[in-house]
User: Fold these one by one.
Assistant:
Number 1:
Amino acid sequence: MAAQYEITIKGLVQGVGFRPFIYVLAHELNLRGTVENNTSGVFIQLQSTEAQKDLFLQRIVNEKPSVSHIADIEICETEAKFEFHQFSIVASNHSCGDITRISPDIAICDKCLADYHQQSHRIHYPFVNCTHCGPRFSIVESIPYDRPFTTMKEFEMCSICNDEYKNPLDRRFHAQPVACNHCGPVYTAYIGETVINDYQTIVDKIAVTLLKGGIVALKGVGGFNWLADATNDEAVKKLRELKRRYIKPFAVMCNSEKWVTENMIVSEKEWEQLLSWRRPIVLLNEKRKLSSQINDHLHTIGVMFPYMAIHYEIFKKSGLEAIVFTSANKSGEPMLRDNTDARAYLLNSSDLYVEHNRAIYNRVDDSVIRVIDDKPQVMRRARGYAPEPIMNIDDVDGGLAFGAEMTAVFALGVGHQILMSQYIGDLSDYEVYEAYKDTLNRLSTLFHFTPQYLVCDSHPQYLSSKLAEQIAKEKKLPLYYIQHHHAHAVSVMVEYDLTEECLALSMDGIGYGDDGESWGCEVMKCDRIQYERLTHLPYVSLPGGDKAAKECWRMAVSYLYAIYGSLDMLPPTLINQVGEDKIHQLSRLLISPLNNQLTSSAGRLFDAVASLLGVCYVNTYQAEAAMRLEQLATTALFDTKIYSSHALGDWDMSSIFQGMLADIKDNVETAIVAMRFHRSLVAQLVAIMQRYANETNLNKVLLAGGVFQNRLLSELLIKELEDKGLDVYYPTIIPCNDGGVAVGQLAIAAARLNKKNDYA
Ligand code: ZN
Ligand code: ZN
Ligand code: FE
């Protein structure tokens, strides 16, 4: 009898066509045994020679389904109790309640696109899918991932679909959302009172509406979207009014690689991202200006390719090359999910309203990524990414981390897996806060999760912290508070499996400091349990608190006052723009004892510089000033001057501000001044990090915090730190912004609990 091997493959291997792939491969290699899904992943029993087993494993690794991901393969040789005569797929064993992974939603695959055009029962069937593609997370209500636990339970499979579903050699074997023209979900369109059910007519109407400059509301994978012709300024303007989003850039969907090549600068890595099955929005640099209505004043634009069959059809029918594609809700509100809510809100406001009858269980927005230092970095983690777990060294089981506030994401701990929620939004909006609570309930149900302990930000005013306190009280659970920038730093440690002490540079807009001040540019020595704040950007006044984060001119005034002790150096342009009255009022506030809030925020420093240079006086959306400043600087990459500083290894904002003011006076081009600011800041940061690396004997540097969404700053800093021989780590799969904070919170709490540290 041949040897028997028991092989367990862990990772993203369920719901992505893994078992049929194994089945077909085993038959091709004439192997005998079984394959099944179990709670750890895919389990294979194989009776073969060692050489056959090795070849089998090698081909599994090399040829696995594109969406799948193998985290680990365990092999053990056992004694065969009986002989297998063939290779077969065995029914899943779901008796145990352990977690199995749920795949993120996957963009329609090429084979399904082909079926859409030629397979008789799926000709022009818009919800065509298979084991390699289609909805997943958005439709799952509970685990295990089986049709009765998805919103597809409403649809009874026809006999053809059922045959495919049962045939191990079919691409739709156990494809839970399998459907066709006879049995699956359908679109319905509404124009006022008129109801249209015919799919082709609906697509025609969408095309015509877009071409006429109208706004189409269309239900998608994880919510509703608004569409408008990106080349029609009037249409985009109309969309801005509707959405009450007047300046923040829109993303566009396009369908032609040629169009992208003509209009955007795209690196190989960016192409890879654009065309990946995750289909995120990728931030690209424009080759030529598309429309100021889309991304006023910026040179970057979010671009994505179609991910549903209907998207392709809309491009084909309309002949359009770029469509503005945004969630169909007022700016700052959560994505709409239910047809009833959507109809009530979108039917009258849009020129055409199109829904389908496949219910969305988990709302999930489009994801956003930016390639930085030739690595894709997730900025908004949602469709195509959620709910892929992040593996953690410590056991995080039962931990629930509430995240921050402006970019709300929470995280559940299951075993060693950190399950981040999809991006939810800014909790200060009531509807978003409700959506956050709702998502918390849904994901807890979905993963059969019951919290044992809670973790939140140490900011007492964050709504997420207040909710954590309320739940801790109700359920009598322990609650741990985590400092914001420590959480940022540890999120990077999680991504790279680091456990040793590291140096961290956390740069962001705001995080509650241990001294009650508003921190945001912190150099720390830390591990997963504790941290020591080594140094920070010198404090300046934060005049008006939250108001200063919005009205960035306040920070310019604050910095100049801190440096010169007077406002004599304020550039006349700034005074004219803001108005003498307001500046006078602010100067009174600056000397008032009532004004006692201080900040070391890097975000506020960028605000100050942006308004000093006349780039932006008021942030109309988060980080607007910083984005504009970065983009402007990027046009002056050729300039390499640095405002010299005598304070080597220490902060010296005065030399930077003096340098900038002198340049402004000399009428040096604003872009050049913006570039010099970036280079000078980087020079100081590098010297500071080097100094502390020497003093602490630590060589690993963690970069985290929303400021690192600035590609120019990140790339300059990473390169120079590496040139100095430091090992630099920055997040890529976990957002560097507050969307990644929950991961750090959970990892810190778990490390402390596991070390039985007397922390409480
Ligand atoms: Zn497919
Ligand atoms: Zn069918
Ligand atoms: Fe932050």
Number 2:
Amino acid sequence: MTTFIDSNALLMSQMMSQPMLISSLLTHAKNNYGTTEIVSRRTEGDIHRYTYADCEQRARQVAQMLSRLDVQPGDRIGTLAWNGYRHLELYYGISGSGSVCHTINPRLFEEQIAYIINHAEDKIIFFDITFLSLVEKMVPQCPTVQHWVCLSDKNKMPSSEIIELACYETLIANENGDYAWPVFDEFAASALCYTSGTTGRPKGALYSHRSTILHAYASALPGSLSISSAEVIMPVVPMFHVNAWGTPYSCPMTGAKIVFPGAKLDGASLFELIDTEQVTMAAGVPTIWAGLLQYVKEQNHSFHSFKRTVIGGSTCPPAMMASFSEYGVNVVHAWGMTELSPIGTVAGLKAVDLQKSKSEQNHILQKQGRSLYGIEMKIVDGEGKQLPNDGKAFGDLMVKGSWVISNYYRAEESPLVDGWFPTGDVSTIDADGNMQITDRSKDVIKSGGEWISSIDIENVAIAHPAVLIAACISVHHPKWDERPLLVVVKKTEILQDEQSLKKDILAFFEGKVAKWWIPDDVTFIDQMPLTATGKLMKLKLRELFKDHRLAQ
Ligand code: AMP
């Protein structure tokens, strides 16, 4: 039971009360790392480079431009954009001037995009040229939007018969940057991001200046993402979803050089940037890295500067960690969610772990890791009773902390249970605090009342040399209620007939998981359905295979 002490009963400190505001990150970067570069692959096709000092100047021009367009503090301003310098200027120009930067995920269904623009009541939408046709469809459906601004040079502006487009560069050129960042309450909303909404309507996580800065501090620390001015960071994880894992804030905070990949996320394009810009660390979901690894292998390339990659969003398969390790790249496994700004845990070794064998170390590093300072975690059973941190018991993962939402934007009922946010993930926590996700609660396979972790099954399957992507889902079974079915996309070069490959894959599980966890069947598809954030779309797979009959 927590006790609260009234402020009147305490001796209050005499420290300055300086609100933590997002604009101060960029001011800090300009003052201390003014010449450090921000490099972007633009949608126009070329590579753009400038410095933190340039970025800060243009962010102030953005703030002036917003004021000229009659944007008031608290107004929501939408962005539909790839990772690039203009998007970064908007992050700061919008939040820094007191309005709310609403990043919109262009991979959502069109009706979801229209829904969230209307739900947020966005006043302006800034968009990359690539999203023009999407924007044209949105215009008649989104009456709150007063201006559609294309993130383009004047001479590259597209034309539209449907809307009157404004040009970002022309608007900015009208401003001189003579603007002082305003000071206001650090609890004010700074940014808004909607969950991908695989079930039900997308829901908005409304971050504050304070929560964003605390998240940037914690995520930049050594042992977290370890971001510093000696690093060159390439955020592949999008700025349009989960704030690119906070890197647009933690990089200016620490002075790291940033390399933005823009719209080109294929293996060849990512490799080229890593190589030419001397990237030391990148961050992204496993599906992106599968493409990069395949390219590097095919081309017989190697990495020089590239030392670490942060992988999250979905479980990083151990086979992927091993592949990166062959190229001298360490994988840092992290877990988080939109509602946590997003990072909650990062895997890492303690000094005593360094004495352990490689396989013991890998066992620790394959987990999702310890909570960052600022996040508390617990696991509970179906009745809400806390389960032990013994690395075996698995239950619903609950979190609380300074960068966890307390409610969704404009929702009536808070999702919190006794002050804890239910993540919807099922996990274990070991005695050392390492959390390991076993499933999304809706993806757990319940066979004869016992739970099977679909993630563990997928991790084994992906290590099979013929498997490119694997998803394990439950299908109905007359005796056991549910049994696992493995859905596989084969590597393109595999010519083996499917019946014998199926037998091989099932045999591959022997000795690697409990016998009753081995899938009852394997089925092959050409393309894996993925969600708007690059995760396996198991809802769709369950629908596709709902009539799949298992052999008795
Ligand atoms: P999103 O809000 O779209 O970022 O999705 C958050 C969800 O992604 C979490 O609740 C997890 O289910 C999943 N997730 C994120 N990181 C990991 C990870 N490292 N391993 C397994 N699942 C993850």
